[in-house]
Design a protein that fits this description.
By secondary structure, the protein is mainly beta. Helices cover 3% and strands 44% of the residues. The chain has one helix and eleven strands; from the N terminus they run E-E-E-H-E-E-E-E-E-E-E-E. The chain starts with a strand and ends with a strand.
Length: 124
C-alpha cells in the first residue's frame, strides 16, 4: 500500500503563513498529477488545488482566493502547499493525494493514493 506523508501543519495565528509538504515514492509520483484537499470538522472534503506531473500547470479551488501556491520539486516526489494570510476558516486537516493521471483534478475519486493528513489550526 503506497502511503503519502504530509508534514508542516500546526497552530498559527490569523495572518500567518505556513508551508505544508507531501512526499512519497518517486516511482509512484514522478509521472502523475498531485493535489491538496482539506476537511474541516463537520464539513465535506474540499478541493484546495492541484499540480501537473511536470509542475508546469496548477489550478486552485475556492479556498485559495489567491493566497495559496502549490509547487513540486524537480525530482517530483515532493509537493508543497504555501499558504499565506491564514484565517480561522482555514482550520482543517489538509490531505495530499496522487492522481491516477498526469494532471491534478478537483475530483477526489480520481486520486489513487492519499496521505493521512496534517492538522492546520488558525487561532489566536
Amino acid at each position: 500500500q503506497v502511503q503519502l506523508v504530509e508534514s508542516g501543519g500546526g497552530l498559527v495565528q490569523p495572518g500567518d503563513s505556513i508551508r505544508l509538504s507531501c512526499t512519497g515514492p518517486v516511482s509512484v509520483l514522478s509521472m502523475v498529477g498531485m493535489g491538496w484537499f482539506r476537511e474541516a470538522q463537520g464539513r465535506d472534503r474540499e478541493f484546495v488545488g492541484a499540480i501537473s506531473w511536470r509542475g508546469d500547470g496548477t489550478h486552485y479551488g475556492a479556498p485559495s482566493r489567491g493566497r495559496f501556491t502549490i509547487s513540486r520539486e524537480k525530482g517530483n516526489n515532493t509537493m508543497y502547499l504555501d499558504m499565506k494570510n491564514l484565517q480561522p476558516a482555514d482550520t482543517a486537516v489538509y490531505y495530499c493525494a496522487a492522481a491516477s493521471g498526469s494532471i491534478g483534478t478537483r475530483l477526489p475519486n480520481l486520486y489513487r493514493y492519499w496521505g493521512q493528513g496534517t492538522q492546520v489550526t488558525v487561532s489566536t
